[in-house]
Amino acid sequence: MTASTILLLLLSLLIAGGLSFFQYLYKVKSKSKVGLFLAFLRFLSIFLILLLLINPIITTSKLEIIKTPLPIVVDNSSSISFLKAKEKALELTQKLTSNSAILDKFEVQSYLFDSDFRQSDSLSFNGTQTNLDLVAKNLKSIYKNAFYPTVIITDGNQTSGNDYVYSFSENNKVYPVVLGDTAKVLDLKINQLNVNRYAFLKNKFPAEVFLQYSGDKNITANFSITQGNEVLSKQSVSFSSSKRTATVNVLLPANKVGLQVFKAKIESNISEKNTFNNSKNFAIEVIDQKTAVAIISAIDHPDIAALKRAVESNLQHKVILINPSEVKSLQDYNVLILYQPTAAFKSVFEANKKANLNTFIITGTATDFSFLNQEQNNFVFKMSGQEEDYLARFDSQFNLFAVDNLGFENFPPLQNKYGPITVNGEVNVLLSAKIINIDTNAPLLSFAENQGKRTAFLFGENSWKWRLQSHVDNQSFSKYDIFINKIIQYLASNNAKKSLVVSHESFYNTGEAIEITAQYFNKNYDFDEKARLTIAVTNTKTKQTKNYDLLKGNSSYKVNLDGLTAGSYNFSVKELNSNNTYSSHFEILDFDIEKQFVNPDLQKLKQLANQTKGTVFYPNQIDTLIKTLLESEEYKAVQKDVVTKSPLIDWKWLLVLIALLLSTEWFVRKYNGML
Asked: Which of 74, 76, 352, 534 would be 114's cystine partner, CB 3.0–4.6 Å?
């Protein structure tokens, strides 16, 4: 309490005493007991009121010992059980968390992780994913700016998230304790399998398979892809101590409509410790959907013939060439390609306002850009009469659909009018324009979507030279034609003007997040935040049905169906107020990513320890780890002076006391006839 506060309290005593003396005792000839009692009540009332106004603060100081945090993080994924390290993990955790010397020196906190990170309650070792990167992010958030060691008991086999080696803070040492047998054993593995989600009927689709071998012998393995009992592809693959990986590329037929499930498998005549990673199921959705593409142009140009051949390389696409003056109706088409539009295209744009078809607009030296400014609002053109050559630069961050860089930077330039092109709204750019070697940051090939209507823009003519150059580079037109057909496929799909739009995958792997999202729109096509959406999911084999509610997010409704077993499922999403429904199906493939490992990832854990200046330990070295932590001079407890300030009185009770004193004084005066 400060000197000024003490002085105010003394002054309050004098004021309270003076006022009570003046009101009840001053000039009173005989001082009765009642008068003295009333003076005392008045003195207390005035003093307490003044005390309430002063509200003196009491400051206390005490020393507090702050221990260094020691997070002990345990891998709770099912790979620990699969590597037969479950009991060892429990034993190590118990030994660390119950060590009295460790508890005396550190503030021990136990955590576990799999696909999530949380405080350790009980270890089950049934997590379906391993995310060590999440551990690093959470520890940084919990122990901000703190200096502490971390013990991680894990096999180091991460199945999701970013590379964890560089995720942890370099200033805080990490001590990985390696679970599982580190002795290398012979193992054949399908490391990765890449395939498109969709294919068109009667076409062939590519599958890319990455194979991996662990061992020292020279072996020959058999790789095959089957569908049911039918073998679609089979070949021999050789491995040795110097050749541990192989890539297999095959073309598979899409002969049946719907979800088609395939199985890739590698095997040899040598027995393996782990055969779970020798096979992998995958699926593809085969679509039977003829797409009518109208190329509308008022001029003749080699680009038109090149586009027609590229689009029709897909048997599901049919191209019709039309002059804009011949357009009567657009109801027979799915996609429009408007080649170098001018004022002659006025009727086409007017008809498309009703048809609402997705459009691919290609400009060039014959384009009327003033007319384009009037008919679309994604770009503003201020073009001059001068012509310019534009080279392409590929944007690897483009993510509207999967597309490979065909070497666009080395393709011949496209010709267009020179002038600035200003983006108006949200546009996704796949190719940007360069003049000689100078980036203009202007779009060359881009995509926009407004209220469900999709539009692609290519700002330049002579793309026929691109197709020819691709043939020179690859001895085939196929790569360029696939590129063009991906654009057409993107434009051919459209969810516009549907009240209930549901997004989902056709298949999921076991252990993946199975999330289905839905949007419900009212008659004005505005997102309805008051919709009531439910989903019924039925296993086609057992006929068992489960019902869930979809929960509203910022701009969609979501449901998480994690926990469903492998199999085929039909589902139906229903909006209860309007009874609108959407029905479809998905497949959960039998693939447990946590069973793909035969050894811990010792190399990664060593990299992590080196990166943070820590040390890797094995289960039989747990006593050495404890000794290292205890003998380290870096982690000393800190004495901290904790200052606490608290009010002398609780003002709520003080108000009650003042009210009680004043009430008592009033009743005494009333009783004695002094009012």
From this structure: 76
The sheet with strand 580-589 has its strands ordered as 507-509, 580-589, 567-575, 533-539, 545-549
Phi, psi of 378 (to 5 degrees): -85, -25
Which parts of 298-452 are beta strand (E)? 317-322, 335-339, 358-363, 379-381, 387-394, 414-417, 421-423, 427-435, 438-450
- For residue 136, which amino acid is it? A
Q: Are 178 and 617 in contact (CB under 8 A)?
A: yes
Q: For 219, phi and psi rounded to 5 degrees? A: -135, 160
User: What's 105's DSSP letter?
Assistant: H
- The CATH homologous superfamily to which domain 500-593 belongs is Immunoglobulins (2.60.40.10)
> 68-182+618-636 has which fold?
Rossmann fold (3.40.50)
How many Cβ atoms from other residues are within 10 Å of residue 302's Cβ? 14
| pLDDT tens per residue across span 344-384 | 999 999 999 888 899 999 999 999 999 999 999 999 999 99
Which alpha helices (DSSP H) does 449-558 contain, by range?
464-474, 478-492
552 and 537 Cβ atoms separated by less than 8 Å: no
Report d(CA 617, CA 345) in Å as an integer: 73
Where do the structural domains in the chain lie, given as residue ranges? 3-62+644-671, 68-182+618-636, 187-287, 291-492, 500-593
Q: One-letter amino acid identity for 572?
A: S
Label each residue of 24-81 as H, E or C.
HCCCCCCCCHHHHHHHHHHHHHHHHHHHHHHCCEEEEEEEEEECEEEEEEEECEHHHH
| DSSP structure string for 644-658 | EEEESS-HHHHHHHH
pLDDT of residue 27: 65
Place of tokens 């003080």: 654
- Give all strands of the β-sheet with 230-239 in edge-to-edge order: 198-200, 279-287, 258-267, 219-227, 230-239
What's the CATH number of domain 187-287, 3.40.50.2300, 1.10.357.10, 2.40.260.10, 2.60.40.10?
Answer: 2.60.40.10
203/200 Cα distance (integer angstroms): 6
State the DSSP H helix or E strand holding residue 7, giving kind and residue range, or none if neither. Answer: helix 3-24
DSSP assignment letter at 471: H
DSSP-derived pairing of the beta strands 106-113 and 68-75 = parallel
What is the identity of the amino acid at 318? K
Class of 291-492 in CATH: alpha beta
- Residue 109 has phi, psi (to 5 degrees) of -125, 130
For residue 650, the model assigns a pLDDT of 61
- At residue 498, the pLDDT reads 67
pLDDT for the residue 103? 93
Q: What is the phi/psi pair of residue 107, to 5°?
A: -90, 90
**pLDDT means per 10 residues in the chain (675 residues)?**
77 83 70 76 84 75 82 94 91 94 93 92 87 94 91 93 91 94 85 84 88 90 94 94 92 88 91 87 81 93 95 88 91 93 94 91 95 93 92 88 88 94 90 90 92 90 95 92 91 70 83 86 75 94 93 88 88 92 88 83 94 95 94 83 68 79 82 72
pLDDT tens-place string over residues 260-294: 889 999 999 888 888 888 998 888 888 776 789 99
Which residues contact residue 401 at a Cβ distance below 8 angstroms, ignoring those fewer than 6 apart?
486, 489, 490
pTM over 0.90: no
